[in-house]
Write a structure and sequence with these properties.
The complex is a heterodimer of chains A (316) and B (455). Chain A is of the alpha/beta class and 316 residues long. Chain A is built from 10 helices and 14 strands.
Chain lengths: 316, 455
């Protein structure tokens, strides 16, 4: 798979702390990449480096296998976490200005803006000043400005903050649309649940270090705990007996003859074996794997790191 | 480069289209024309007629004509009228407040023997300075003429002597090729001061606008979007140049509008008064005591204006204008880079104070130094302050009309350009870090560290 962007061993230090410590990333083309991590982990620093707003202290970046340089600026679209527009400037004029700064011609920018403004049903605002718009409206304008020049790489920092659910859905479907048209999207968020379902790949950043990265499916597989939730009617007794050596009962609830149980596979047991075994004993209503969320994985991983950290402290 | 141009265009247009710019552009010339016209207009307004009761105990200023009436000799003026009732001072003062007179003029008996210092003017309400000085000079002139007559001196002889003793030196500067150069210190002072003041004013007015613009971008957070398209330095320079063009536009409009307004005003408002009269009025205000030689002085004045015009032509106006433009622009560029850095370093206007100080001090200092440089444009203080880049835009402009050796000018200009490059480099580094730094109270130490951050 081709990578649209590769970062190799990026280090960024500020006066009092290290924002990025030897972070490497590969962002595959035409995918949605999630850069996840709590506030202050170093996500924004990394994004600013990719946008060439600041430079790394050491490490290299490659855009489509070329060393990242000023000419790539026009192929990147950036929606910062802190949104902002010139408040006293008219919407259309401002959008044109920002598009031209990204290297678009005035004619081209005008044509495309018209298309997007109609799509988002905001063409009536063209001559309004930004300060007259509501916050949600400003966000729409800003989103349009970000995607207008059809960047190959779209960087969205906390994209859904500030949008109401309806607009957030519009934006979400637009993002998927852009992916279909060939763009690569880099999400950055501390709210891991919000983008989990959209991402193909993720990287988890914690305290300026990358702690996990890879395809979402792979990570889930690696971190899955083999726990299944089974809902059935019957008795707990016959259910427990049917588990044999395949599974271990973790917890259960009983409501008359309606039961819900969580079972973890034991050893090399397969999920089908467990299912076959319990099928004979009780009447199954639902059977599903409990998949760990990114949040769970993150917490698990951070705890792991902390344990390692404490151990190394002890050895000192 | 194309992007810098876009930024310049936006900075320029967004300001020029503002209502406040248009209002300032129109108000400026009106204020300036007002400063020129109002005093003239006011001086032409007829002040209220002052009626003055003269009690002349010396009988020097009165005589009795054939019909036995007492007549006065003090020349009248259109707003000063004298009456000569035959009463004593005590009589005059009695019930004075109910009379129609505005003042009593009492002239003691021994006025020719040192008594002139006892001449009193007693009034109900403060009398105008012009009326007072008119009376003083009128009496003085009469005493003078009486004294001449008493000593049998021909007044014409005195006038002639005074004429012959009156002159202004013609100052000539010689350059090393032996060519003469006419000089006029007063004119040079005026040109130098006006240029220096304009530069000072321009740097402050538009430097602060640069700072505000940077702060607006920082606080509205749009800066991050723009910086993903252009380099911080491009954004900073685009803003500085854009605002410089705004300043030049406003300045040019002011010059044109002020000129137009002034000429319209002189034609319409003052059309019923010819310039001669205006000059006379101004004269009476300024040199009432010189009434004696008013006529002569007046003639001299017309000559003075012609001479001034000649001197003006003798100043190398093109060279001064070019130098002015240079110091005006480069001086502004150098300082505004600092203003931009301050705007980038702080989060709100209130925090700007501590960082403004080092910018304002050299500016104010150079304006103060300029005052003494005028006294001695070739002193070593004048030399150093006109060479050091932070003060040179203002101080050199003051020195220029008096003539500055070419090498000094070249040194000063090249140092200013180097200074500009240097400050812009420093400011650019502070700017680039500060513009993305939020919610942090910045200290001087912190600023110092920013200089050495990697971009």
């Amino acid at each position: 798979m081709n990578n649209i962007l590769s970062a190799k061993n990026i280090v960024k230090r500020y006066a009092s702390h290290t924002a990025l410590d030897d972070v490497s990333l590969d962002i595959p083309s035409q995918s949605i990449f999630g850069l996840l991590g709590p506030n202050g982990a170093g996500k924004t620093s990394l994004i600013r480096i990719i946008n060439q707003i600041t430079g790394p202290d050491s490490g290299e970046l490659f855009f489509e296998d070329e060393k990242l340089s000023q000419k790539h600026i026009e192929q990147i679209g950036y929606l910062p976490e802190e949104r902002g527009l010139y408040k006293k400037m008219e919407v259309g004029e401002q959008a044109l200005y920002l598009a031209q700064l990204k290297g678009m011609s005035k004619v081209d920018a005008k044509k495309k803006l018209k298309f997007w403004f109609e799509k988002f049903e905001i063409d009536a605002w063209w001559n309004k000043k930004v300060e007259e718009l509501s916050k949600g409206m400003q966000q729409k304008v800003q989103f349009i400005v970000t995607v207008l020049h059809e960047p190959k790489l779209l960087i969205l920092d906390e994209p859904f903050s500030g949008f109401d659910p309806i607009n957030a859905n519009i934006i979400k479907s637009e993002i998927l649309n852009l992916k279909k048209q060939g763009s690569t999207i880099l999400f950055s968020t501390h709210n891991m649940g919000s983008v989990e379902e959209l991402c193909d790949n993720i990287a988890l950043i914690h305290r300026s270090k990358k702690i996990v990265d890879g395809a979402v499916k792979e990570i889930r597989k690696a971190y899955k705990s083999n726990i299944y939730e089974i809902e059935f009617t019957g008795t707990m007794m016959s259910f427990t007996n049917s588990l044999w050596t395949f599974g271990k009962l973790l917890e259960h609830t009983v409501d008359g003859d309606y039961c819900k149980a969580q079972v973890q596979l034991v050893g090399n047991s397969k999920s089908n074996q467990l299912l076959e075994s319990v099928l004979a004993a009780v009447d199954i209503q639902s059977y599903r794997e409990i998949v760990p969320s990114m949040n769970d994985i993150f917490i698990a991983k951070v705890n792991e790191e902390n344990v390692v950290g404490t151990q190394s402290n002890f050895t000192e | 480069m194309n992007k810098i141009f876009l930024i310049i265009k936006r900075e320029y247009l967004s300001r020029v289209k503002k209502k406040s710019f248009i209002i300032m552009t129109i108000l400026g010339p009106i204020l300036m024309a007002g400063i020129g016209i109002v005093p003239i207009y006011l001086s032409m307004q007829k002040t209220q007629m002052q009626k003055i009761e003269v009690v002349d105990e010396s009988f020097l200023f009165t005589y009795v004509d054939k019909s036995g009436d007492t007549k006065g000799l003090i020349p009248e003026k259109d707003n000063v009228h004298f009456d000569y009732p035959q009463i004593s001072l005590d009589q005059a003062r009695q019930g004075f407040f109910d009379t129609e007179y505005d003042a009593i003029l009492w002239i003691p008996q021994n006025v020719l023997n040192g008594g002139q210092k006892g001449i009193r003017l007693i009034y109900k309400q403060q009398m105008s300075n012009s009326a007072q000085s008119y009376i003083e000079s009128a009496l003085s002139k009469m005493i003078f003429n009486v004294m001449l007559a008493k000593n049998k001196v021909d007044p014409n002889f005195i006038k002639d002597a005074k004429d012959k003793a009156s002159f202004t030196m013609i100052t000539t500067q010689v350059d090393k090729d032996g060519n003469d150069k006419k000089t006029n210190t007063g004119l040079y002072t005026a040109i130098g001061l006006v240029c220096a003041f304009l530069i000072y004013f321009f740097i402050f007015l538009y430097g602060v606008q640069v700072m505000r613009g940077v702060m607006e971008e920082k606080t509205s957070r749009i800066v991050e979007v723009i910086l993903s398209s252009v380099k911080p330095f491009q954004l900073m320079m685009g803003k500085i140049v854009g605002i410089a063009l705004v300043g030049l536009t406003q300045f040019l409009l002011w010059v044109i509008l002020t000129g137009t307004l002034y000429s319209i005003a002189t034609v319409t408002i003052l059309k019923d008064v010819d310039m001669k009269q205006i000059q006379q009025k101004e004269q009476t205000i300024k040199i009432g005591a010189d009434l004696n030689f008013s006529e002569m002085k007046h003639n001299a004045d017309t000559g003075e204006i012609a001479k001034l015009w000649n001197d003006f032509k003798s100043v190398d106006i093109v060279a001064i204008l070019l130098c002015f433009l240079f110091y005006f622009l480069v001086g502004y560029l150098m300082y505004s880079a600092f203003f931009a850095a301050v705007g980038a370093a702080v989060d709100s206007e209130a925090d700007t104070q501590q960082f403004m100080m080092p910018i304002t001090i050299p500016l104010i200092l150079s304006f103060v130094v300029a005052q003494s440089v005028i006294q001695d444009p070739q002193s070593s203080m004048a030399f150093w302050f006109s060479i050091i880049p932070f003060t040179s835009p203002i101080v050199m402009m003051v020195r220029l009309p008096f003539g500055v050796p070419a090498w000094e000018l070249a040194l000063s200009m090249s140092l200013l350009v180097i200074g500009f490059l240097f400050t812009t480099w420093i400011a650019g580094r502070i700017y680039r870090t500060g513009i993305l730094m939020y919610g942090k109270k910045v200290t001087w130490k912190e600023l110092g560290k920013w200089l050495f951050f990697k971009g």
